[in-house]
Amino acid sequence: MKLYQYLLDAAQEVPDSIFLEFQTHKFPFSYVAAEAKKFAAGLVELGLKPQDSVGVMLPNVPQFAPLHYGTMMAGGVFVPMNVMLQGDEVEYLIRDSDIKVLVTYEMFVDSVNAGIKNLEHPPQVFVVGEKIGAHKPLADLAGDATDFEPVVVDDDLPVMRLYTSGTTGKPKGAQITNANVVANLTMTEAVFPVHEGDKTLCVLPLFHCFALNGVLNGAVRNRTGVVLHPRFEVEACIKSLAEDGITSFAGVPTMYFNMLKHPLINDVEFPQLRHGVSGGAAMPVEVLSQWEEVTGRPIYEGYGLTETTVSVSINRPEKRKVGSIGRPYPKVEVKIVDEDGKELPQGEVGELAVKAPNVMLGYLNKPEATAEAIRDGWFHTGDLGNIDEDGFMYIVDRKKDMIIKGGFNIYPREIEEEIYALPEVAEAAVIGIFDEAKGELVRACIAFKPDQSVSEEDIRAHIGKRLARYKHPNDYVFLDELPKGPTGKILKRELRDRWEQWNKDRVDEPGAPVSSS
């Protein structure tokens, strides 16, 4: 079944059942479906053709859902965009996806304007709020849905494009089909059955696959409720878990960590909460144990990727192993392989490969990257791990240099390229360093050309104009030369191993590199 059909059916059969709650407002399925149809009709009236892309750069606001389902009703490809993107990043996504219509929030208009200023054929921009400059308010996108019928798209074509950065430093658009999402929902519901009256708290950003496919699309299929928060705020999150009838919560480890640090956590109870789910980064065992001790509610750690729609594996209520990422969901095959793709024996560490009905079609406009990632039907994740005798999976390292900071994926190459754009820089390497609260922080290691330098403030200003804030290095280390192997490759592992000594040096030695968060 089409994702949007779940919404239309719910609007017919349980029209008054609440789908979304936002602040003091409640939106039933019938309202969201009607809005989705209006947006779909409006997109078609604008000239949107099947497989044209619609970009949405919004925080967690109620308009997100009808735009999501309305785009699919119009036959378009939904492209959720990180709200922290800056002009050049916005421009890249618009060009790569050939976005025809872009909906944004008034506070992000400057970034959108910077992203479209160099485009010969910019998308039509609509703003949630009042008319801003040449951009129309979102209300103007609503069309006449009286006789509108959804545009049917073949099941083997993408309905959404979820961007994830790669080792080239440029984001890659994972092509996700309707069948991918339905398969993902089916497998997750087999492990965690849905109950009537269930309600999920969504503080994860809807532009990310975890919230979009793990929360929103699951709720519309099962006719359950979603309480939307614009962003994660610790006290508001705790109060919502306690007061809003929340039965499940999906978050990244830093959210659980920060809630445990707030004094309110010891003064409330979560009467209807059955469990929490954690993903996006490794869950520290001590955080999981403390959460369960304080709240009396379990956390089930799982693993997934944008390219797998969201899910690969999870710990289950009936059996789990703390510190693992659980066992594969139903219909998900996994194996550990060496560099030649040969399967390794149980317990040995190698790259995790996945074969499942929720694996993407491939990357947009990147046939070589697609061929590298998907080989003989197996998606190669780039993560290193092993599988124990009970089928539980463990991630022990990342084959790629990705940094996970507060649940956000950060790829060093993208930051390094911006640093190398400074003519004074001879060498640069960006690494992740452990941080209890964020999981990892970003450290930039730089060596300048002889007799040349750039101040840390100027480097920060340079990065600030080009990359989203969450990608900014937390600190900088300036060295005469970066460590290298026999082939001249910078040894990032050695740089990571030095970080404790660097911290000591900054305290004990005058003139040592300055760190700031």
Feature tags:
GMP Synthetase, Chain A, domain 3, alpha/beta, Rossmann fold, globular, Luciferase, domain 3, 15 helices, five-stranded parallel sheet, single chain, 517 residues, nine-stranded mixed sheet
Description:
The protein is an alpha/beta fold and 517 residues long. Among the domains are: 1-147, Rossmann fold, CATH 3.40.50; 298-398, Luciferase, domain 3 (Roll), CATH 2.30.38; 403-508, 2-Layer Sandwich (GMP Synthetase, Chain A, domain 3). It is 30% helix and 26% strand. The strands form 6 sheets. It has a 9-stranded mixed beta sheet, with helices on both faces. Strand 12 (248-251), helix 9 (253-261) and strand 13 form a beta-alpha-beta unit. Helix 1 (3-13) packs across helix 2, helix 4 (87-97) crosses helix 5 (109-116) and helix 9 (253-261) packs across helix 10 (285-295). The longest helix is centred in the N-terminal third of the chain and has 18 residues, at 29-46. The chain is globular and about 70 Å long. The termini are far apart. The relative contact order is 0.08.
Q: If you average the pLDDT, what whole number results?
A: 92
As a percent range, the share of helical residues equals: 25-40%
Biggest sheet record: 9 strands, mixed
Oligomer: single chain
Q: Please tell me the CATH architecture of the domain at 1-147 by its name.
A: 3-Layer(aba) Sandwich
Rg over alpha carbons: 23 Å
Total helical segments = 15
Strand arrangement, major sheet: 2-1-11-10-12-13-14-15-16
The N- to C-terminal Cα distance equals 47 Å
| CATH class descriptor of the domain at 1-147 | Alpha Beta
Task: Characterize the overall form.
Answer: globular
What fold name stands as the CATH topology of the domain at 1-147?
Rossmann fold
**Structural class computed from helices and strand pairing:** alpha/beta
How many β strands by DSSP? 26
Low-confidence parts: 507-517
Q: Tell me the fraction of residues in β-strands, as a range.
A: 25-35%
